[in-house]
Structure formats: C-alpha cells, structure tokens
Structure to design on (597 residues):
C-alpha cells in the first residue's frame, strides 16, 4: 500500500473517532438541555396542564436522532381542577402513552442558529390515546367565544418555526368517552389504527394556509374495523364497519361493509319490546364522501361535501301488527322536514345511490304470516341535499331521481321534488311502472290479506301527485288486462271452504278486468285525499297511489253499492251467501282501507 493511501485512511479514521467523541460529548451534555426544552415546550403549549414523563431518552446528536421510551403525556388533575374553578378548563382531556417515539434527522444547528426545528420524521409505536370530553357551559358555542391561542402562539417563545416531514403512527388504540350536558355517558374504542401525517409546518403564516388542515398537508388514516352498541327508543342496535379510510388532502372518507342492525332477530326483537315499531336493518358495501370539508366537520360538526355515494346494499324495514302501535302525529316529519330540523348543517351537492334493495315486510295480525314488498336495485341521485339557509336562498328544492325493479320485476322510475322552505311540507312526485305480471304482488297480498291475484298483466302505470302535510292531489293512469282475483279460505277457521262465489262476485261485479274496460271506457284516477295525521309520509304516498288503483279498476262508491245490492239478492239462492257477503265486504275494507261512510 502506498504511503498516500495510509495517510488518507489514517486521516479518515481520526476524523470518525473525533466525530464519535464529539457526538458522545454533546449527547451527554446536551441531554439535560434538550430535556429542559422539551418540558418547557409541553408546559408553554398546554398552559401547564400536561406533564411529560418517560423511562429513557437516547440521543445521537451527530445523526440528529432522538428516542423516547415508554413516554406518557398526562394531565395534571390539580391544574385541571383549578382551571375548572376559574372556568378556563377545556372540554377535551387527553391521556397518551407511547411505547416508543423515534425522532430522525432533527437539525441541531438550526435550533442554535435561528431557533427553527426541522425534523425529517417521527415514528410512534403502539400509542394508546384516551380522549375524555366533559361538558362545560362556559365553553358552549352559544356563549361568547373566548379567544384561543394558535399552536404557533403557544410555541413561538421556544421555536420561531417547526417543520416535520412525516409522522407515522402504527398500531394505535383510541378510546373516547363523553359526559354531555344531560350527564349521560357515551364511550367507544378503536384498535389497530394506522395514521400517517405529511408535511407539518408551524409558523406565523401556516395557520392561514387554506391548503393545510391544522398545519398539515395530508393526514391519512386507516381503521381496520369497528363495532359499537347503540340503544335507541326503538330497540338495541349495533353499528359496524369493516374498514374506514380517510385522506384529508384528497378530502375523501371511505367506509366499507357498513351496517346498522338490531341485536336480536325479528321474533326475539318483538317478543322483548312488545311494541309494533319499525325494525330497521341497513347495510352498504360502500359509503363514500368526496370533497368533504374536514375543518367544518371538526370545528362546527357540519357535513359539507360535493358528492356522496351509497353502493350495493339494502334497507330493510319490518313491522309486526300482532303487537300494539302507539299512534304518533306524523305531520311535519317528512324526509325533507326531518333534514331541516337537523341540529347541524348538512350540505351535499349530490348523493348517488347504486344497486340498493329497499324492502318493507310486515307480520299479519290476523293470519300470522309475513308479507313483503321490495324495490330492488334502486339506482339514482339526490341533488341539493341541504338544510343550509344560505344555499337554500339560491335553490330551495331538493330533488330525487330514482329507478328500481318492484318485486325484482317491473321497472319503476320516480322523481321527487321537495320544497325545503315550505311551511306545510310541500312536495311533488311522479313516476312510471313498466310491464310486469300482477301476480308478483302475491308476496304481500296473500300473507297480509289472504287474497291472491290469479292473473293479470300490467302494461304500464303513470302518476303525478302534489301534496302538503294535509292533502294530496294528482292523476293516476293504470293500463292492465286479464285481472282476476282469488280469495282464499281463512286459515283460522280450521277447515277449508270454497270461496269461488266470493271470487266470482269480486271479478264479475266489483272490478274491471281491464283498462280500458269491456266497453272500451278508459278509467283515470283523480287523487284528492286528506292525509291521516298518524300515517307516515311514505304510508300516505302509498295510500294516494292505492286510491288511484281503486278508481282505475272501476271501484267507485256507486259500483260498490251496486255490488252490495246484488249480493243481497244472491243470498237466498247460494248457500252461506250471507257469510260470503260479509267476507267480501271485510276483504275490500282490508284491501283498500276504505273510510266508513
């Protein structure tokens, strides 16, 4: 080896030894200073409320690395009690434990020269975060807001500026508890969270940077699963999702396999509560929000987004008429009126629904059988979904354009228009139903009314209705042919009886088997109904359409009276006609829910 190489190697060796010695010396002598500054930073930025403790602090000054082990950030209960007495205590209180915190590549020279803290990355392993919220009236948003110091104002006496390239949080656990103004407690927890925070900048200008959310360019969070019990006035439920993904830079929130369902199956559910209230079962494979304003969501609990998606799921509603139902006045409780009553602002430009099944089922009180009607593969959009008065001043209508396959067969297309500023719930809806076999409706008719459609071809339905909280008016057109009804024996009588006479009277005297009828007369339904206050918005909608069906099928008051007279004449010639007539009258009252004259 040439002497020059020996000299170079020797020089490098001496340099490495010197740097190692300097690093060791600085690590030992700077450690107390760093610890002091760290405690001062925590103290000044939290008004002396929090204390930081740890088992070990390792520093490598030359590399700019720092490691804290078993670090704990916890509130001083005496300080918090004093702040409560002085009415300066915050509503939120944190308790944070971190198994290991690693800081990489912080610039010690920047700290010395210009009091600027630059950090390449921070990694937290197994953090345990507890957030407790306690209501204080003096922090209520309705009270005069107190000026709050920005994060920069809290740290500027220590650092002129802070920049952190990236923060990685792995396997985090989060527990939330709340005591509200009504003293009720709520709590839930999340495990195995992954969070990545990119480009944190804290200086005198960063808090006004609209491209940042709380000094950050991007926060990405992944929650692998969630299950939370909920107790509601209509039973116990659980809310679940398979995964939650959040990206504040893209302004998106994605929920997968989200559900809200009762804890009990149908029979056990109604046996426990002994009331006939609606049992709700919701599921969506995908729930997605785009262009969500996270700052408004966090600070004001406002949901403001450009688009929302609900894909591949179901909405199942169920009732059991064997149990009593408490009548409730439903005036003012239509969907758009409920939205207007929401406490917090909701403003979503467009909501897209894709491939969602809507099913309503009911257990019959008389026959103890389940019937259901389904609207399969509902797809469409809702626009201007908002209760924001400023937005409604520009456009006061929420609209819905939806299509579905009723009973998974005939295609139904509907349009709704809701006047959000109307004092009496003004709304309108129109739609069409395509060709289908009328017997598909036996899934709901036979279990609930003990009647079947023996035959019938629906060629098309068209309707156009306007309404308020109190009355509905509109037109209904129903094109069909070969309609025949078969009335079944009552299973509660314990024996089978032929009801062919009843079916004959219905088909020959009461209903038209086609529209236009045999005399080529076309029947158009004229809807003009006063709403029953205890009936829900959707039940009232169905009753309006049912009124149209009755009229187009030729079931007028005059025709019903004619049927009654013929039934009276027939009773002397046909065995048990009196009983048959009684059954027929009862059938029509049940089927069409006619009001007593």
């Amino acid at each position: 080896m040439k002497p020059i190489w020996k000299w170079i190697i020797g020089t490098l060796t001496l340099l490495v030894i010197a740097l190692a010695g300097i690093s060791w010396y600085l690590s030992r002598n700077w450690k107390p200073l760093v610890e002091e500054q760290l405690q001062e930073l925590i103290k000044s930025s939290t008004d002396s409320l929090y204390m930081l403790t740890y088992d070990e602090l390792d520093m490598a000054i030359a590399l700019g690395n720092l490691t804290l082990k078993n670090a704990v950030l916890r509130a001083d209960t005496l300080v918090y009690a004093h702040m409560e007495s002085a009415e300066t205590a915050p509503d939120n209180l944190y308790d944070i434990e971190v198994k290991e915190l690693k800081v990489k590549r912080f610039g010690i020279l920047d700290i010395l020269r210009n009091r600027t803290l630059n950090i390449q990355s921070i990694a937290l392993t197994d953090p345990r975060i507890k957030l407790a919220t306690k209501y204080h009236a003096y922090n209520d948003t309705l009270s005069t807001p107190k000026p709050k110091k920005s994060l920069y104002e809290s740290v500027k006496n220590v650092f002129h500026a802070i920049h952190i390239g990236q923060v990685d949080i792995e396997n985090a656990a989060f527990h939330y508890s709340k005591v509200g103004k009504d003293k009720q407690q709520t709590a839930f927890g999340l495990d195995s969270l992954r969070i990545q925070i990119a480009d944190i900048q804290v200086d005198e200008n960063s808090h006004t940077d609209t491209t940042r959310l709380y000094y950050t360019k991007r926060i990405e969070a992944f929650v692998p699963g969630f299950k939370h019990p909920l107790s509601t006035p209509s039973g116990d439920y659980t809310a679940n999702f398979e995964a939650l993904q959040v990206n504040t830079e893209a302004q998106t929130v994605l929920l997968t396999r989200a559900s809200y369902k009762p804890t009990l199956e149908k029979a056990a559910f109604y046996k426990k509560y002994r009331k006939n209230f609606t049992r709700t079962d919701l599921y969506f494979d995908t729930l997605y929000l785009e262009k969500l304003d996270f700052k408004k969501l966090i600070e004001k609990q406002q949901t403001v987004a450009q688009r929302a998606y609900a894909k591949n799921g179901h909405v199942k509603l169920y009732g059991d008429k064997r149990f009593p139902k408490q009548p409730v006045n439903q005036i003012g409780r239509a969907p758009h009126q409920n939205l207007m009553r929401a406490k917090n602002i909701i403003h979503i430009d467009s909501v897209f629904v894709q491939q969602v099944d809507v099913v309503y089922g009911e257990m019959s009180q008389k026959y103890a059988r389940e019937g259901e009607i389904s609207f399969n593969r509902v797809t469409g959009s809702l626009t201007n979904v908002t209760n924001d008065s400023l937005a409604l001043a520009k456009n006061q209508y929420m609209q819905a354009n939806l299509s579905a396959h009723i009973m998974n067969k005939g295609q139904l297309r509907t349009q709704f228009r809701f006047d959000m500023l109307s004092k009496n719930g003004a709304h309108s809806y129109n739609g069409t139903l395509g060709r289908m076999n009328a017997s598909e409706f036996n899934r709901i008719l036979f279990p609930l009314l003990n009647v079947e459609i023996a035959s019938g071809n629906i060629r098309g339905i068209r309707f156009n209705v306007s309404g308020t909280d109190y009355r509905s008016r509109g037109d209904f057109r129903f094109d069909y042919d070969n309609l025949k009804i078969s009335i079944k024996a009552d299973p509660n009588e314990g024996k089978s009886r032929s009801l062919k006479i009843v079916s004959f009277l219905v088909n020959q005297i009461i209903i038209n088997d086609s529209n236009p009828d045999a005399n080529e007369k076309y029947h158009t339904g004229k809807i003009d109904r006063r709403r029953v206050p205890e009936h829900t918005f959707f039940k009232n909608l169905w009753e309006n359409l049912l009124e149209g069906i009755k009229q187009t099928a030729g079931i007028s008051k005059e025709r019903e009276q004619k049927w009654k007279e013929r039934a009276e004449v027939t009773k002397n010639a046909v065995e048990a006609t009196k009983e048959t007539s009684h059954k027929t009258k009862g059938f029509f009252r049940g089927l069409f829910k006619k009001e007593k004259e």
Summary: The longest strand covers residues 161-179. Confidence is low (pLDDT under 50) at residues 571-578. The radius of gyration is 35 Å.
